[in-house]
Amino acid sequence: xxxxxxxxxxxxxxxxxxxxxxxxxxxxxxxxxxxxxxxxxxxxxxxxxxxxxxxxxxxxxxxxxxxxxxxxxxxxxxxxxxxxxxxxxxxxxxxxxxxxxxxxxxxxxxxxxxxxxxxxxxxxxxxxxxxxxxxxxxxxxxxxxxxxxxxxxxxxxxxxxxxxxxxxxxxxxxxxxxxxxxxxxxxxxxxxxxxxxxxxxxxxxxxxxxxxxxxxxxxxxxxxxxxxxxxxxxxxxxxxxxxxxxxxxxxxxxxxxxxxxxxxxxxxxxxxxxxxxxxxxxxxxxxxxxxxxxxxxxxxxxxxxxxxxxxxxxxxxxxxxxxxxxxxxxxxxxxxxxxxxxxxxxxxxxxxxxxxxxxxxxxxxxxxxxxxxxxxxxxxxxxxxxxxxxxxxxxx
Amino acid sequence: xxxxxxxxxxxxxxxxxxxxxxxxxxxxxxxxxxxxxxxxxxxxxxxxxxxxxxxxxxxxxxxxxxxxxxxxxxxxxxxxxxxxxxxxxxxxxxxxxxxxxxxxxxxxxxxxxxxxxxxxxxxxxxxxxxxxxxxxxxxxxxxxxxxxxxxxxxxxxxxxxxxxxxxxxxxxxxxxxxxxxxxxxxxxxxxxxxxxxxxxxxxxxxxxxxxxxxxxxxxxxxxxxxxxx
Lengths: 396, 229
Fold this sequence. Notes:
The complex is a heterodimer of chains A (396) and B (229). With 396 residues, chain A is of the alpha/beta class. Chain A contains 14 helices and 11 strands. Chain A has a domain of 130 residues: Thiolase/Chalcone synthase (Peroxisomal Thiolase, Chain A, domain 1, 3-Layer(aba) Sandwich), CATH 3.40.47. In chain A, helix 7 packs across helix 11. Chain A is globular, with a radius of gyration of 19 Å.
């Protein structure tokens, strides 16, 4: 198997992109990544498109076929990857395997979603279609509902408090104000969302004990990367970033079937596999993008990945250990919480943000100093299909 | 041109006496302080300057809400509407939201519009609640008739309070009204009606000085831009 590098990365600002179609968003992000890779007259051999809801929300299928034509990349092979909110990382994994195997040399992976075309109710319902079709969905469960129950259990078992969740929320939204690609560019104020009596309206309960600002926004957006064998990266303008490891694991579809619903086994396994493949330990990671669709998930994943002991993630967040400049900066991009969560795009966007970190090309107020190794966790379902990547800066 | 006051007296609808809405201030999610106060008729020209750019924004029905609000405020300014009032939300003097309504009679209120000029801060929610507070706690009405013109409004008022469906036609478009009764208001109040009184004089001085408003492009970007929520 060949070592595979990321040689181009691109993203379009996330938000509410009323004027753009899904296809246009995918095309813009792809062009940015292609341009960033500086391949000249070389084309790509294959295109993997991550998308979860095109069929349901835009009534559009065969999205990858459409995109290769739109981008004049014919006759590149094209496939659409649907794996719930982990579609993005799944597409990166498929691109990685295709290049590693030696079958393709240059691969475009792009993820995108257009969720703001429908009302918030429809978007919530669309995301809920990933729940169990007999024992969950018919009873009205939503992902925020699951997040609320998970949070309650985590609070009872590990002593996580609203203060801990608040620390994640304040941190990620503050970082979002520095990220031009972030959907939410508004810093939150502790008084306004927590201490003041007015907070009851500003930050109402969404899925007890989760409040409005514990949840990620519903966003439109797209992100893309270009992959190729490491051995073919020598003449490129920008430094390549090695995909040093990846992991993927699944778990029961329903939370109640798990021995301990607070144990996110698939996160642990995926991260372990990725770290072992990269021959690294959690302590060797300098920056991480975790899947904080809800604030509790950043805390729980930071423990399951191995950055902190079980039950210590909340305190670590409150103590500032996950901030820029802290022990392990997490979601410096603002995470799903502020950058947004266009579901098909998220897993790719996480990789793009880590690539920028490892190239040391971000502004000082977002750059993790001397970052050499980064990690991502893309969380599908409620932890029933999780992918993790470890990326390494390649020394020039 | 001098007004013919005799004819004018015929054209002007009657007005019920209305106690003033006592101003309050609210801390928003970003920590900024919004003063909620009642507008006076002389404020209308300045308010309309903020409403004007919204007339051309299709997103979330801002165009129809703004067009109707513009007409309602103009009618109030020129004495062509019965017992209308208008409440303003201001941050550092800048106008960020407007709500209005009127009295159908002494016991029944007619809710008009809620326009948030800055978004993502639940300004609309705060101002709508202030409007209901005014009807129920200061004008001492029994009920308020309400319709929504956007899905956001329907979710915020009809579902979240929740309001009671009626067959009474609302004067905005003639559709069936929803009703806020005193009982519904008192149940919803702990979740929606917040704010502190009295407003410190320095905050009131800023709010009551010339109403400030962002330029048209900024308003359009806040409402309908990429980051519009």
